[in-house]
Amino acid sequence: MLNVRDLKVHFPVAKAGFFARRQVVHAVDGASFEIPRSKTLGLVGESGSGKSTTGLAILRLIKPTSGEITFDGRTLGDMDSETFRAMRRRMQIVFQDPYSSLDPRSTAGEIVRFPLDIHALGSNAERKERVAEVFSLVGLRPRQMDLFPHQFSGGQRQRISIARALVLQPEFIVCDEPVSALDVAIQAQILNLLSRLRDELNLTLLFISHDLGVISHICDEVAVMYLGKVVEKAPRHALFRQPLHPYTQALFSAVPTRNPKLKGAVKRIRLQGDIPSPINPPSGCRFHTRCPIAQARCRSEEPQLTEQASDHLVACHFPGQDISVAG
After folding, report:
1. Is the dihedral of CA 118, 122, 125, 130 positive or negative?
2. 2-90+170-261, which class in CATH?
């Protein structure tokens, strides 16, 4: 369904002075992955790793600097605005914050109906019927269409956002941290809703999150990003069973467990230092400044994303080493 190759998104920074050199933020710097039809790929990493920028660039809500994005066999970068406008109906997004992504001056029904108006689909009666249909689909009552966003809870607002994304009957949806602003109990409801909708409507999802617990609940495959690059990608079960990249191991060690038998059994890996600036990323492997097993080769030679096991890709010169021992 979706194939991303060497995607780069760079943002120029205002110059500090007239004679200063213009600097560039390497928000996404060569990310590559693919998503099979009807599957969910989880994109995970720390804040600032480029996850959300990747999702926005795929939908051309941010213009990519370079790279190739192919959707259902068609290259999006080659399309003119009119052609892509028609393609937009097949690709939608659910934003992170249900409080700021909904227009407070419009009713819930108007918000969900707006995409139908933009694309001039159906008569007024047909649009109203379609809006009522998706309201029921996401667990809202059609009589709530006349209410304003402030009259809904956080979970209900996110259901409105999901209804807005579904109203055009898309095939692919970017979910940009859709549950991070919600209470834990509500998170489970929204995740179950997205899982059900994916299965019932045959949807393909790119699910962006920093929460590995959320990722494990809904995703078929997982891609780990660090400083603008994908450093590991594998089926969910393989990645959670045996992470090969040192950064992925450190992320997994921070996940709390509810099993009392496992508490204390997993050593917490504490990385030294902060994420380097995306304005001036390190040479070689970008993780080498924080990696406890880094060697001279890591500082000079950038590792490529290569297959270490069946469908398990990792960008590391020394994959699979247990850094809990080294750290």
Report:
1. negative
2. alpha beta
State the virtual CA torsion across 258, 260, 261, 267 in degrees, nearest 10.
70
| pLDDT tens-digit series, residues 81-119 | 888 888 888 999 999 888 888 999 999 999 999 999 999
pTM above 0.85, yes or no: yes
Summarize the chain as % helix, strand, coil (round to 5): 35, 20, 45
Domain ranges for the chain: 2-90+170-261
3-state SS track over 20-70: CCCEEEEEEEEEEEEECCCCEEEEECCCCCCHHHHHHHHCCCCCCCEEEEE
Q: Which residue, 63, 64, 113, 58, is CA-closest to 87?
A: 58
CA 287 to chain centre: 21
